[in-house]
Structures are given as C-alpha cells and as structure tokens.
Amino acid sequence: MNKKTIGKFVIIIIVGIILFVLYKHNNKPKVGTVPEEVSTFNIVTSFYPTYIATLNVVEGAQNVNLKNMANTSTGCLHEYTLTTGDLASLEKANVLIENGLGLENFNEKIVATYPKIKIVNTSNGTETIKDESGTENAHIWASIDNYMIQVQNIASSLSAANPENSQIYSDNAEIYIAKLKKLKNQYIQQLGDMSSFNSICLNETIMYLGKNNNMHMELVPTNHQETVLSGTKLSNAINYIRENNVKAIVIDKNDIIKNAELLSNETGVNIYKLDSAITGSVEKDAYIQIMEYNLGLFMEMKE
Fold first, then answer.
1. Separation between Cα atoms, residue 96 and residue 110, nearest integer Å
2. Burial zone of 214 (CB within 10 Å; 0-12 exposed, 13-18 middle, 19+ buried)
3. How far apart (Å, rounded) are the C-alpha atoms in residues 130 and 141?
4. Using CB atoms within 10 A of its CB, is residue 132 exposed (0-12), middle (13-18) or buried (19+)?
5. Residue 97 Cα to chain centre, angstroms
6. How far is CA 162 from its chain centroid?
7. How does pLDDT run along the chain (303 residues), one tens digit per residue?
8. CA–CA distances in Å: residue 42 to residues 22, 66, 85, 169, 283
9. In whole angstroms, how far apart are CA 22 and each of 19, 132, 196?
C-alpha cells in the first residue's frame, strides 16, 4: 500500500470518527428529561354481562387494557366478596364499569380503597321491573332493550374518560347496537306479542327475558339455594298454574331443578331452562348467541 492510499484511508477513518461523535452528541438525552412512554388506559368490568358489552365497545381502541374482575363463570354478584386479586386488578384501573342498581354490593369498599377510579353505572336510563315493595330487579341486562342502553352508557362514559379513542367507542357501540336491534326484531317477527301467554318463573333474572316478547311471567321468589319450596309457596304456585292456564315453568339453566320438577309433576306443565346471560363464553357475539338460544326455546313454548 503506497503513502497516498494510506493517507486516504486515514482520512476516511478520521471522518468516520467525527461523524460518529457528532451523532452521539446530537442524540444524547437532554438532562432532566424522561423518555416518553405510552400510557395505558385500564378498564375493569365487574362481571360477565358488562364485560361482553365492553368487549364490543373497545375493539380496536389504542393503548387500552380491558379486564374482567369476577371470573366469567361466577354468576350473579349478590353475595360476591372482593378478593385480593380483584383489588390488585383495580389498583391500576382508570375506570370500573358496573351494572348498578346495588348489584355490586362491594362498591363502597372500592371507592374507599381507590377513590380516583371512575365508576360507570350502566343502569342509568334502563327500564326496571319492581316487586310489590317497589324494590328494583337489578338483572337488567337480560332485557335486550336495556342492554342496548347499557352499551350506549359504556361508550359515552369511555369517550369522556378516554377521548383519544372516543370515535372508536362511538362507532363500535353503533355497530353493536345495530346487531342488538336486529336481534330484538327477530323476537318481534318470530314470536309476536306473547302478553296472553302465561308462565311461572323461579328466577328473577328470567323475568327480563320475558320482557323481550311481552310474555307474562309470575315470579315465585326463591334464593336459588332452596332445595324444596316451602309448603305455602308450593301450594300457591300450583294453584296459580291451574287457575291461570300457565303453559310454561321457566328457570335458569344453572338453577336447581327440584322445585320446577315438583310443580311440573303436580300440574303437567313443561319446564324450560332459559339462559340469563350471566355466564358464558368470552366471544364478542356471546350475548347475541345466548339470546338466539332463548328465542328458540320461546318458539317451542308457543307450539
């Protein structure tokens, strides 16, 4: 290698070193700054029905984490007790989406422990069923009309709390509600008005399923753990069935069937196990599939 070639080589190396030093200098973090991180918007739902509704609303939203608090197989929250795992889930939550109407009886503990969490009550504006004392039946999601209102409440609340995804929430809610309206129309077209169809119901959640097609359901209150109805309740229910041309005894698919069997054996009326949509798969269309299953059972009742 001659001197001229060596000189060029040295110049190239020097230029390279200079460029590298300049690059490192220009890209050196400024003193007192922290690298920008993308913050995650954390949403927690209280139980299965609110989770499925929210799952549809948040699809495609950026930097959003959705988690369900109670296990999706837990069922109703009447007697639910918060676990350490639940509290851990809520620690980083920005929003807790709940059913409302007192179903989440642990609400006060959450507010006291995590006062900064925004709680979304999805029951606002829904039409509730009340008992003789005026107590509201909290199982509103089993009414398709109410569920549509809950979906809209979720979308509106998330849009306010997480505006960067507001358009996605709004668009998703519109799409999902359109599907639910189509489902409701299936009930109307295939069942018509069933207000003259009498049934007896052993689960208060199922009462809202009757609202989907205006079916009259007479509730026999139970605690769902009652293996056998009291003599008075059993006698009154049998008399009601016989005197009112009751054509169906309806329970939830997860209920103890013993009481329904006692009534059926005494009256000859068939038992139908409806799905209250309180548990199920975690697919987006799970609620719709459950209600289509119930529609099939209502069709059988009419035959």
1. 10
2. middle
3. 15
4. exposed
5. 9
6. 19
7. 554 555 455 455 554 554 444 444 444 333 333 333 558 999 999 999 999 999 999 999 999 999 998 776 666 766 677 788 888 889 899 999 999 998 888 888 888 889 999 999 999 999 999 988 899 999 999 999 999 999 999 999 999 999 999 999 999 999 999 999 999 999 999 999 899 999 999 999 999 999 999 999 999 987 655 567 888 989 999 999 999 999 999 999 988 899 999 999 999 999 999 999 999 999 999 999 999 999 999 999 988
8. 41, 6, 15, 15, 20
9. 5, 81, 85
d(C-alpha 145, C-alpha 180), whole Å: 8
Query: For the chain, what's the residue count?
Result: 303
Side chain identity at residue 8, one-letter code: K
CB 246 within 8 A of CB 197: no
Cα–Cα dist 117/196, whole Å: 46
Q: What CA–CA distance (Å, rounded) separates 185 from 213?
A: 10
Task: Determine the Cα–Cα distance for residues 239 and 137; give it in Å rounded to an integer.
Answer: 25
Sign of the torsion angle spanned by Cα atoms 158, 164, 166, 172: negative
For residues 19 and 166, give the distance between their C-alpha atoms in angstroms, rounded to a whole number.
Answer: 46
pTM, to two decimals: 0.84
